[in-house]
Amino acid sequence: MSRHAKKLKDHDINPCVAETDATTKCMSDNNYNKDMCTDYFLKYKNCRKFWHEIMMQRKRNGVKPEMPTAEERKKILESMGKPY
């Protein structure tokens, strides 16, 4: 597995692993017909947007690391409900 592929599967780096996997599975199951997977694409897009906003806020506040760890993200989601 390439270094890039490993990063995509690392829960501490990629907050949207589950959404990525669900989108890929949908595409595979539906002969790569994007129209059949619109909901999955939207969930992925909303996930990326949500965590990007969190990351930018942490960066503005001087919090390191800018992207919360998988453990921190789990706590954030539990406190908010799943916002995407």
UniProtKB/TrEMBL annotation:
Q: Which GO terms describe its cellular component?
A: mitochondrial intermembrane space
Sequence segments annotated as region (Disordered)? 61-84
- Compartments in which it is found: Mitochondrion intermembrane space
Q: Which UniProt keywords apply?
A: Disulfide bond, Mitochondrion
Q: What is the protein's major site of localization?
A: mitochondrion
Q: Name one GO biological process term.
A: mitochondrial respiratory chain complex assembly
Coiled coil: which residue ranges? none
Task: Report which superkingdom the organism of origin falls in.
Answer: Eukaryota
PANTHER family from the UniProt entry: COILED-COIL-HELIX-COILED-COIL-HELIX DOMAIN-CONTAINING PROTEIN 7
Q: Which family does it belong to?
A: Belongs to the CHCHD7 family.
Name this protein carries in UniProt:
Coiled-coil-helix-coiled-coil-helix domain-containing protein 7
